[in-house]
Structures are given as structure tokens and as C-alpha cells.
Design brief:
The chain is mainly β and 103 residues long. The protein has 1 helix and 7 strands. It has one domain. Strands 1, 2, 3, 4, 5, 6 and 7 form a 7-stranded antiparallel beta sheet that branches. The radius of gyration is 14 Å and the shape is globular.
Length: 103
């Protein structure tokens, strides 16, 4: 069964443009094990659509780390982020630095 688990926005810059990604995190339960999945997409002047897919994470923090790592790998600079809490967006906070443990 798949249910919505969380939602966050992450602002990143590339080629002088700021893009706000809205990411929905889903909890997927199989055989009593729950894993988190997320995906989003955008376009830039050189690519029609760029998709970002994150699978099999244990926490929302791990999703954010892996998403920020994918953004950096594709030339984006993650700037700030905020989460969806109780029917409104939380204040913007800085994105955590990239760690070497993220694959």
C-alpha cells in the first residue's frame, strides 16, 4: 500500500535561475516493511525534462540528503528548503551540506 508521508519544497539555482521543487514523499509498505520513495521533475534550457527519483529510504532526512546530492550532481546548487506542517509551509531553512555517505 502507498500513502503520502510528507511534502517539502527545496529551492535550487542553476544557470542564474532559481527553481523551487515541490517533492511529495510516499510511504510504501510491503510485507510489514515500510520504505520511503519520492520523485519530482523540472526543465532547464538544455534539457526538456529532468526527473529526480529517490527510492528505498528509511527517513525523510535521508530523502532530502539524497535529493540534494542528485541536484548537486546535475549542476544545481541547493539553497534552502521548507516542509509542509499542519496546513501551512514552515519557514525556510538552509539545505544540509552534502555528505560522502550518500550514494
Amino acid at each position: 500500500m502507498i500513502k503520502e508521508h510528507a511534502r517539502f519544497q527545496l529551492e535550487a539555482s542553476k544557470l542564474g535561475r532559481n527553481i523551487v521543487f515541490q517533492v511529495t514523499v510516499y510511504a510504501k509498505t510491503r510485507r510489514r516493511k515500510t520504505s520511503l520513495h519520492a520523485e519530482t521533475q523540472c526543465s532547464d534550457p538544455y534539457h526538456f525534462v529532468i526527473q529526480f527519483v529517490i527510492k528505498d529510504c528509511d527517513s525523510t532526512e535521508e530523502i532530502i540528503e539524497r535529493f540534494a546530492h542528485q541536484l548537486r550532481h546535475r549542476g544545481f546548487k541547493p539553497e534552502r528548503m521548507r516542509g509542509w506542517e499542519e496546513q501551512s509551509w514552515a519557514p525556510w531553512t538552509d539545505v544540509p551540506e552534502d555528505s560522502q555517505s550518500v550514494a
